[in-house]
Every structure is written in structure tokens, then in C-alpha cells.
Amino acid sequence: MIVARIRDETDPEGENIEWIRECATYAGTLKRDLATLSAIGTNAENALTEILSFDGDRARITTSGLRTLAIEVSQGMLNQHLLTLTDAKRSGLVKGGEKFKIQLPDGTIFSTELCDPGNKLRERGLIRKFYADSNVTEGDTVVMEEKSRGSWLLRRAHSGDQAAEDGELNKLLQELSDDKSDKL
């Protein structure tokens, strides 16, 4: 649209050259602003990773706003039948008091909420059942995947999940980068 307008506004005598210069200046400003925003995003990710000990590769938000959280299970979580979402809360992906409707791999559906303080899901009995049925052990990763606003699927991560998630994340980042380039 801008190129067509430039073509329409340009005349052979150069009477509208000032308007073209303004467009070029504006385009340069947009390019600089996009680079600044990219740097801000990188700094924010570094802060989350290094300062708050949040691993950005372990959580995703789709373009539709649905979230996917990967949680490493500790022995304490197993012993107490807890599922804690501390990293997701620190990063702002979930908040204290948030309600969750969770489906387990066996089809069991339950409602719970994120306790504040503590960053753990209130339901413990079904978390224990999930851990037992899914053979979750210390150091395993479980994945909470939001299927629709507030409705989640909880499952044990399989050995290829992180690589697949990393691949999906890299693909999304490449698409965003390509999209930025196209707009410049």
C-alpha cells in the first residue's frame, strides 16, 4: 500500500519529493523501533532466565493465548502429592487464585486452583493418582497444556517432548523473525 502511494505521489518534476523523504524517515524509525523492541524482548527473557531462574523454553504461549507449561517434578512434590507452578507464576503465565479445570490421561477431569502463597495446585489426591498412574519419578517433566481458556490437559512428558517443544519454539521464533523482515 505504501509503495503504491509512493508511486502515485511521485511526479517526474520531483514536486512531491519531500513526502517521499518523510516516508523514508518514518520507515527508518519503524525499523529502529522494531530492533529496540527485539532487544527489550531479549533482555526480558534473559532476566527471567538468569534472575528469576525461569527457563523460557519450558513454557509457551500460542498466538491464541493458550499456555503450555513444563514442570520438573521434585521428590518433595512426589512425597507431598503437589504440583507447583512457581516458575510459571514468576513469569506471569499464571496467577495466585487462578482456577484450573484439568483432564488427566485416563480422562478424569477435576477443578482446582493455584494456592497463593505456595504456588501449588490445591487438589492433591488426584495429583497423587496422576503421579502413580503415569509412573512419574523425581526429575521427570510433566506438561500442562491449555486446550481452551482455563481447561488443561496434564500429562507426563515423553523423552522427545522437550526436543519437539524446542523445535516448535525455534520454528515460531523463525516465523516471527521472517514476519518482522517482511514488514521492514
What keyword list fits this structure?
alpha+beta; 47% helix; elongated; 6 strands; 184 residues
Q: Report the order of strands and helices.
A: HHEEHHEEHEEH
| Strand residues, percent | 15-25%
Average pLDDT over all residues: 77
> Over all CA atoms, what is the radius of gyration?
23 Å
| Spatial ordering of strands, largest sheet | 1-2-5-6-3-4
Helix count from the secondary structure assignment:
6
Shape label: elongated
Largest sheet: 6 strands, mixed
Please count the beta strands (DSSP E, at least 2 residues each): 6
Give the end-to-end Cα distance, rounded to a whole number of Å: 13 Å
Helicity range of the residues? 40-55%
Which spans have pLDDT < 50 for at least 5 consecutive residues?
52-57
Q: Structural class of the helix and strand makeup?
A: alpha+beta
If you had to describe this structure to a student in words, what would you say it looks like?
The chain is an alpha+beta fold. 47% of the residues lie in helices and 18% in strands. The chain has 6 helices and 6 strands; from the N terminus they run ααββααββαββα. It has a 6-stranded mixed β-sheet with strand order 1-2-5-6-3-4, with no helix packed on it. Strand 1 (59-61) and strand 2 form a beta hairpin. The two termini are 13 Å apart. The model is unreliable at 52-57 (pLDDT under 50).
Strand and helix layout:
Blueprint: H1 2-9, H2 17-51, E1 59-61, E2 67-72, H3 75-80, H4 86-90, E3 99-103, E4 109-113, H5 125-133, E5 141-148, E6 151-156, H6 161-183
Parallel strand pairs: 3-6
Antiparallel strand pairs: 1-2, 2-5, 3-4, 5-6
